[in-house]
Amino acid sequence: MAWVFLAVAIVFEIAFALGTNATKGFTRLWPSVFTILAAAGGIFTLSQALRTLDVGVGYTIWTGIGSIGTVVLGAVLYKEKITLPKLLSFAAIIAGAVTLKLAAGA
Questions:
Q1: How many structural domains comprise the chain?
Q2: Do the beta carbons of residue 34 and residue 15 sit within 8 Å?
Q3: Which segments of 23-54 does DSSP mark as H helices, in order?
Q4: Domain that holds residue 13
Q5: Helix axis angle, 55-78 relative to 29-49, nearest 10°?
Q6: What is the pLDDT of residues 30-43, one digit of tens each?
Q7: Residue 105 has pLDDT above 90, yes or no
Q8: Which are the contacts of 74, defined by CB distance < 8 A and separation ≥ 6?
Q9: Mean per-residue pLDDT for 79-106?
């Protein structure tokens, strides 16, 4: 169940990061409300995952996969460029996340 909580936390993390851009410095009400709720949801579900997972594993996967999702969706939604160095970095993050999951034995 911890991995399900972590997956949900990652979705919230991506929503929080993308929502932060939409707030325009927290000057827009509804994007700001969405962003604050996404941040709270991410922290809550991450904390549930960390009841079982090691903090080093859970937090690293949360931030790593959340970063990848943010960059990919940032490219789709905000037309940000994905370059070869970014792709290589994504591969390294994914390899690290998989290795951490395997090392956690879950």
A1: 1
A2: yes
A3: 29-49
A4: 2-104
A5: 150
A6: 999 999 999 999 99
A7: no
A8: 18, 21, 80
A9: 86
Return the residue matching tokens 């034995």: 105
Angstrom distance (rounded) from CA 103 to CA 91:
18
pLDDT level of residue 62 (50, 70, 90 thresholds):
very high
Write the DSSP assignment of 12-29 as a string of letters: HHHHHHHHHHHTTTTTSH
Q: Which two tokens stand for residue 34?
A: 């969405």
Token pair in block for residue 27: 């000057």
Alpha-carbon gap, residue 5 to 95, rounded angstroms: 21
Query: CB within 8 A of 41, min separation 6: which ones?
Result: 8, 9, 12, 15
Model confidence over 7-20: pLDDT tens digits?
A: 999 999 999 999 99
Sign of CA dihedral 46, 49, 55, 57: negative
Q: Residue 20: count other Cβ atoms within 10 Å of its Cβ.
A: 19
